[in-house]
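Q: My labmate handed me this sequence with no annotations at all. I'd like to see what the chain might look like in three dimensions before we decide whether it's worth expressing. Could you predict it?
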Amino acid sequence: MKKDLLTFKNMDGELINHLLVLASNIKQSPSEYAHKLKGKSVVALFEKPSLRTRVSFDIGINKLGGHLVYLDSQSNNLAGRESIGDMGANFSCWADAIVARVFKHETLEQLSAASSVPVINALCDQYHPCQGLADYLTLAENFDDLSKVTLAYVGDGNNVTHSLLIIGAILGCNVTVVTPVGHEVSDDILSYAKQEAEKSGAKIHATNDIQEAEGADVIYTDTWLSMGDDTPLSDIKDKFAAYQVNQALLDATGAKYVMHCQPAHRDLEITSEVIDGDQSLLLQQAENRMHAQNAILVNLLA
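A: Here is what I predict for the chain of 302 residues:
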């Protein structure tokens, strides 16, 4: 039976740890995996624009010996031409997997239901599992024991936050989410993360108080407005100003590192000083997107 990677919910820690080890091995010994996807073709269906996701999947699949076909639904007017289910069924006739970056999680579920090949979530409104796996790979490269790490996410509770919560709770990594009022994470996902944390021993906490990020080992942030959100920046700038990630926040919390999934809006949610500073893991995260995604592809296809 074919398997998908739509979210890490209901996945056990053993499999996630396997993916982290596999990603690390691919990163350290790329030549050993150069033919893992030989003869395989992957369709990448993108409803939303992308830089890191598109480039890292394209180059990563090539490094594994596979072939990627990129379909931009905006420029090619795929949206509305036929049903998502029909597209998924047709892709399955030719491709070995489907990578989809979409507006709604329901689109992925429709693709999965109609497809006989694996579907990988490259971002949706609820989850960003590839980013989450890359982030925990980055943490594992900088800390010996994730169960002793506290990650504080500061900013808008969004798809990235959800995946950080889910994976962290399963792996036993402590996660504190600090958001402005009205920008909290999904109640359902927070509840799920707390349930998983009871099994793994992780501490999961959500708050609106920025001072509760004190003691975190890593501060993580993302854009204040998710891609596609047309809310004027002026409408939220004052609300988010106290949640800017800057050197003063790093010093106050005692955090050793700072993370951001990018694209970053310099000197809004995060300062240039921090992005370019010695505590920044941003480029390591960006590189690890490719290795984490390659691990997912190898696990599903090879």
